[in-house]
Amino acid sequence: ANDSYQVTTLLRGEILEAPFEEGDMVQAGDVLYVLDSSDVETSVRQAQLAVDQARLNYEDMLKNQDDLTVTANGSGVVQKLYVKAGDSVTAGAAIADIVDRDVVTLEVPFHSQLAQSMWVGQQASVTVDGTVEALNGTVTEISGADQVTAGGALVRTVSIEVRNPGAITNTSTGTASVDGQACAASGPFSYRTEKTVTAKASGDIESLAVSEGTQVSDGQALCVIGGSSTESQIEAARLSLENAELSLQSAQDKLEDYTITAPISGEVVEKNFKVGDNLDSTNSEALAVIFDMSSLSLELDVDEVYIGQIEVGQTVEITANALEGQTFTGTVTKVN
Asked: Is 188 helix (H, G, I), strand (E, B) or coil?
């Protein structure tokens, strides 16, 4: 035969399928045997779970890396820093207080009927208790619910934003009038921004980018947590994911081996195992033998008297005793 192949395997297990017989013509890639692969399928599922777990761990590490840069959660001035470079912090620990004193908000009650006639954006006049100077403000919010005062009057809370001349604190109080109508009572001032920034991850403060009194904007970096140790952990998580993926690929490749296919096209001349047979390490016999009979090679001896007249490429007429009266044509491919 022009080509032949002995189908073998090193795998063990029961043969579940063998959809061919001796004498069948098969094409390269056709399924010859399917072995029981339940154990390997379990290994593949376990390897897939390991990959999923490793990927989640790696993604969490990357997410934590983003959390290592602590940023301002509003614009203002760093009023207080709770940490310094080298300090160890845990997730949720206070890092800094940010206060925006440039703009303050006064919340005062107006009689309900007056409040219902107001609108957001309307101008207001604000007076800080204990002073006589009037400040210009803007209505930013009007409560939609009535409240009852100690005297039984119905009021609604109105928020008015004012530029801070510098003396107003979050302990100051004041009054306001809108369109000449005065509020029902004094109310407290609050800073527009008064927030505490907290850490989202645990680690050591590697560097500080601000100090108390620094003016910051929303999203500005305040400090960095972690460093080389964190980078090492991320790299270790990446390598663990890569290793898990390689293990999964190896398990999947092994699973594919349990489906044995024809390596060449040709005729099955031997089938030595059938459905139900068990393969183990003692099986040395080929599972099947395939011959490619599309062309044949013939080796024969030529007498030394004539061998000098034989050359590669010459046309050869071939006859066989079993096929009387038939002649076949071939070509010399090699002369020893």
From this structure: strand
In degrees, to the nearest 5, what angle opens at C-alpha 89 toward C-alphas 88 and 92?
180
Instruction: For 131-185, write each residue's pLDDT tens digit.
Output: 888 999 999 999 999 999 888 899 999 999 999 998 898 899 999 999 999 999 9
CA distances, 28 to each of 31, 210, 294, 305 (Å): 9, 70, 14, 44
Give me the pLDDT at residue 234, please: 79
- Which helix or strand (DSSP H or E) is residue 160 part of? strand 154-163
Give per-residue pLDDT as tens, 191-240.
Answer: 988 889 999 878 888 889 999 999 999 999 999 887 556 677 778 889 99
User: Helix, strand, or coil here: 323?
Assistant: strand
Q: What is the DSSP letter of 182?
A: E
Dihedral of alpha carbons 146, 148, 153, 156, sign:
negative
Please answer whether residues 76 and 104 qualify as being in contact, where contact means their C-beta atoms are separated by less than 8 angstroms.
no
pLDDT, residue 58, reads 87
d(CA 92, CA 209): 19
Closest CA to 261 of 21, 3, 9: 9
Summarised one tens digit per residue, pLDDT across range 310-319 is 999 999 999 9
Concatenated DSSP letters for 74-136?
Answer: SSEEEEEE---TT-EE-TT-EEEEEEEEEEEEEEEEEEHHHHHT--TT-EEEEEETT---EEE
Q: Which residues contact 180 (CB under 8 A, 6 or more apart)?
A: none
Integer Cα distance of 91 and 62 in angstroms: 16
> Other C-beta atoms within 10 Å of 135: how many?
20
